[in-house]
Specification:
Blueprint lengths: L1 H16 L7 H11 L5 H13 L4 E3 L7 E3 L6 E5 L5 E4 L6 H10 L9 E4 L2 H9 L1
Parallel strand pairs: 3-5
Antiparallel strand pairs: 1-2, 3-4
Helix pairs in contact: 1-2, 2-3
The structure holds zinc ion (ZN) and manganese (II) ion (MN).
């Protein structure tokens, strides 16, 4: 039982570490079935929840239609392209000072923050500039 759970988690982690597309649970399920044909959707969803709660992966709410998942559990910023709909990592340092700024300005306690950017990805910008 424990071995099976470990394997299911490992398969999901492998799928996430081999893609940069920040996939939905349904996409991950389709990929997991190629490795474990009898895996259920519920099992995939449950493992995604456990892995994100433990901080091993990140659950993204950037997409209003479906939650997306990221094999990188460390905080980093994302851009959702309003043209192609893809979600990209932004290679810029996390502004940790924002936590202290928000706390000092409002008197709340801040444990962290997420930033979601919206705009156009490099690929879409290139296409627009070419046409
Ligand atoms: Zn795009
Ligand atoms: Mn990411």
């Amino acid at each position: 039982m424990i071995a099976r759970n470990t394997r299911q988690k490992q398969v999901i982690l492998n799928i996430l570490s081999n893609t940069t597309c920040h996939p939905t649970a349904d996409w991950i399920y389709e990929e997991a079935r190629k490795v474990i044909p009898n895996i259920s959707k519920g099992t995939v969803y449950r493992n995604l929840k456990i892995l994100s709660q433990s901080g091993r992966i990140t659950e993204l709410r950037i997409d209003k239609s479906a939650r997306r998942y990221d094999g990188n559990g460390h905080n980093h910023y994302h851009l959702k392209c309003e043209n192609c709909g893809n979600v990209f990592d932004l290679e810029i340092p996390v502004r940790k000072e924002l936590d202290q700024w928000a706390a000092e300005k409002t008197g709340v306690a801040v444990n962290g923050h997420n930033i979601e950017f919206f705009g156009l990805c490099r690929g879409c910008l290139l296409k627009i500039n070419r046409s």
